[in-house]
TrEMBL record:
InterPro entries: ABC_transp_permease (IPR001851), BCAA_transport_permease (IPR052157). Signal peptide: none annotated. Belongs to the binding-protein-dependent transport system permease family. LivHM subfamily. GO terms for cellular component: plasma membrane. This is Branched-chain amino acid transport system permease protein. Keywords: Amino-acid transport, Cell membrane, Membrane, Transmembrane, Transmembrane helix, Transport. It is a multi-pass membrane protein. GO terms for molecular function: transmembrane transporter activity. It holds the Pfam family BPD_transp_2.
Length: 290
């Protein structure tokens, strides 16, 4: 039997990991909330962002946390361009076509990464990767603590953007009724592209926060997007508060399952919760349409 201190440490570390999971889920739920589609390229884009962090670290020695500054606008611009000039025109306004296009993008990105980086696993050797911070009787991972603070900050900034700016009002208007929004002069195609860009920007930040403690290979994004999708379903499709709270909850569940069942079974609790939510409350915690 584990001591209360060890269990408390696992819970706190799970909360810190959960905020980064929530950041990945935010990009997924934001795209769903506005475009009303599941972005099948989400995992592949996260993988590309993680490789971008690895490349800038290995080539120019840029710290992963400092890499947030150039990579976030870069991935926003990339996401904007992909939605505006690839997904939008190729879908011809049909949601089912968008699903197929994002699935094709996922396959193309993954295979491009396999061609460029092979299937080898890569990590970053940072000085602080295994450092811990003492918090009373608890020992907390320093990278996870930094990730916790940064993910909370990004979530707050995203909420302020959506609730307090003209761009945010346009995004919310299109999410509610795109035809009505177009009638009052909102450029729906531009809003779609901005939303997709914001989702990719969230992935860039998440990649920078993950890389000091995680590895990357061309298929790693699939594992993260499965967790993110569980968070989105748990919190409610399209709900930003739900994504944050769902991420915190899933992080704790994964940490406790890893403690009691072993690291190899750490995610079993996540998928049991996923099944239970679909059976008991498919609309999620915040009642959004699933």
């Amino acid at each position: 039997m584990y001591s209360p201190a060890i269990i408390a440490e696992a819970i706190v570390n799970g909360l810190m990991t959960g905020t980064v999971y929530a950041l990945i889920a935010l990009g997924l739920t934001l795209v769903y909330g506005v475009l009303h589609i599941i972005n099948f390229a989400h995992g592949a884009l996260l993988t590309a962002a993680m490789f971008a962090v690895w490349v800038v670290y290995e080539t120019v020695g840029l710290d992963p946390y400092l890499a947030i500054l150039p990579l976030t606008p870069l991935f926003f611009g990339m996401g904007y361009a992909v939605q505006r000039f690839v997904i939008g025109p190729a879908s011809h306004g049909n949601d089912s076509n968008i699903l197929l296009v994002t699935l094709g993008l996922s396959i193309a990105i993954e295979n491009a990464l396999l061609a460029g980086f092979r299937s080898d696993t890569r990590t970053l050797n940072t000085d602080y990767g295994f450092q811990v911070v003492e918090f009373g009787s608890l020992l907390l991972s320093k990278p996870r603590l930094i990730g916790f603070g940064a993910a909370i900050l990004v979530t707050v900034l995203l909420w302020l953007l959506l609730s307090r700016t003209d761009t945010g009002k346009a995004i919310r208007a299109v999410a509610k009724e795109k035809f009505g929004a177009s009638l009052v002069g909102i450029d729906v195609a531009h809003v779609y592209a901005v939303t997709f860009g914001l989702g990719c920007a969230c992935l860039a930040v998440a990649a920078c926060l993950l890389m000091p403690t995680f590895y990357v290979n061309p298929r790693i994004g699939q594992a993260f997007v499965l967790v993110a999708f569980t968070i989105v379903v748990l919190g409610g499709m399209g709900s930003i508060p739900g994504a944050l709270l769902g991420g915190l909850f899933i992080g704790v569940v994964e940490s406790l399952c890893g403690l009691f069942l072993g690291d190899s079974l750490g995610q079993i609790g996540i998928f049991l919760i996923f099944i239970l939510v679909l059976l008991v409350r498919p609309t999620g915690m915040f009642g959004a349409k699933a």
